[in-house]
Amino acid sequence: MTEGLRKSVDIILPAYNEELALQSTLEKISKELPRDGYKFTFIVVDDGSEDKTWQELLLLKESYGETLQGVKLSRNFGKESAMFAGISRARDRGVDAVIIMDSDLQHPPSVLKSMLYHWDNDEFKIVQGVKKYSASESFCKVVFSSLFYSVFSKISRLELKAESDFKLLDKVVVECLSNLKERNLFFRGLSSWIGYKSMSIEFDVQEREYGDTKWSFFSLLKYSIGNITSFSSRPLMLVLLLALGYLLLSCYLIIKTLYLHFLGFNYQGYSTILILISITGMCVLFSMGIMGIYVSKLYEEVKGRPRYLIEDTI
Ligand code: UDP
Ligand code: MG
Predict the structure, then answer these.
(1) Could you read off the pLDDT of 62-95 as tens digits, one per residue?
(2) Which of 62, 162, 233, 313 is 20 to 30 A from 250, alpha carbon to alpha carbon?
(3) 26-56: string of b/e by CB count within 10 Å (b at 16+)?
(4) Is the pLDDT of residue 43 over 90?
(5) Sequence-ordered list of residues with C-beta below 8 angstroms from that of 31, at least 6 positions apart, any chain
(6) Which residues have C-beta atoms less than 6 Å from ligand 1?
(7) Ligand 1 midpoint to CA 272 (Å)
C-alpha cells in the first residue's frame, strides 16, 4: 500500500516514572498493531519523571527511529496535562486519529485492532475503552470510582460509567479538544461532552507489571472534587439548600423560644446552645469551602497560565 493511502494514527502514552515499563509496553503494543493500512507513531509524554524514563526513551529511539517521538514536560503536571500535550502534538502533526493509553500496559493492546476497526469501518469518531472491573483492582478503588461516576453523572448530566482514558479519537475530536481554552481539564468528561458518534468497548484492567500506581486515596479524592467542580456549578446549589434548611430550623426555634417566653418559661440548657453553635459553624464552613473551590478554579483560569511547559522533544 502506498504511503499516501495509509491513515496516520498517533499512540499517546503519558508516562510518569515508567522507566521499567516503557520498553515492554512499546514492544507489546507494536505486536498488536495491524500491519497494513495504517502508519503508527508513538508519542511518549514524559510527565516530569524523577527516574530515568527520558533516558530510556532516548535509548528506545535508536531502535524505533521515526516511529517514536518524545515530549518531556518541565515538571510533573499530572496525567491530564500530559495527555493534552500529546494530543496537541498529534494535532500539529495533522494525524487522522489518536489513541490514548496508559504506559503501564494496564490498558490491553489486544483491544487496539477492534478500536481501529470501529473507527475506520463504522465511522465512529470516539471509541472508548470501558473498564470491566477485575480482581486486580482494589475493592476500595472500585467502590470509590463507582461512587464518583454516579455523583458525576447526576451533577454534570453526562453519562460516564467506568470510563477510562483508553480512547481512540478521530481528528475532528482532536481538533475540538485542542481548541478548548479551559485549564482545569477532565479528559473523560470532556470527550463525552464533545458529543459525536461514539461507542464503547469493554476491557479487563490488567495487572500492573512494573512500578506502582501514582494514586493515593487523597489524590483520588482531590481529583474527583476537582473534576466535579470543573464540570458543573450545581454544588453551589447545595449552599442555597443548606441556607434554606437553616432558615427553617431558625424559624422553628425562634417561634418556640418566644412561645415559651410568653408562657413564662425559658429554653432549657447549655446543650441546645452548643448544638446550635456547632450546626451554624458547620454550615458556614462547608459553604465557604464549596465557594472557595470555585474561587480557586476561577483564579486559575483567570491567570491563564499554560497547561504544561515543554522542556525537550525527540
Ligand atoms: N501518569 C502521568 N502523570 C502522573 C501520574 C500518572 O503521566 O502524574 C501516567 C502513568 O505513567 C500511567 C498512567 O498515567 O501511564 C496511569 O497512571 P497509574 O497507572 O498510576 O494510574 P492507575 O492505572 O492506577 O489509575
Ligand atoms: Mg495504571
Answers:
(1) 898 889 999 999 999 988 899 999 999 999 999 9
(2) 233
(3) beebeeeeeeeebbbbbbbbbbbbeeebbeb
(4) yes
(5) 109
(6) 14-16, 18, 47, 76, 78-79, 82, 102-104, 106, 213-215
(7) 50
Could you give the C-alpha distances from 97 to 38, 39, 77, 148, 173, in angstroms and in order? 10, 11, 24, 29, 9
Per-residue cell: 110: 489486544
Ligand 1 closest atom vs CA 16: 11
Distances 46 to 62, 68, 76 between C-alpha atoms, Å: 17, 13, 8
Q: Who surrounds ion ligand 2 at CB < 5 A?
A: 102, 104, 106
Cell of 111: 483491544
Cβ pair 76, 16 in contact under 8 A: yes
Distance of CA 39 to the CA centre of its chain: 28
Cα dist from 45 to 86, 142, 179, 309, whole Å: 6, 27, 20, 12
For ligand 2, the distance from its centroid to the CA atom of residue 129, given in whole angstroms, is: 14
Q: Give Dmax (Cα) for the chain.
A: 98
Does the predicted TM-score (pTM) go above 0.70?
yes
Q: Is the pLDDT of residue 118 over 80?
A: yes
- Contact between residue 156 and residue 189 where contact means Cβ atoms under 8 Å apart: yes
- Let me know: does 106 contact 18? Beta carbons within 8 Å: no
* CB atoms closer than 10 angstroms to residue 259: 10
Q: How far apart are CA 28 and CA 45, in angstroms?
A: 18
Q: Which residues of 174-185 are buried (b: 16+ CB within 10 A; e: fewer)?
A: bebbeeeeebeb
Cell numbers linked to 13:
502514552
CA-based nearest residue to 100, from 7, 198, 14, 202: 14
| Residue that wins the pLDDT comparison between 1 and 226 | 226
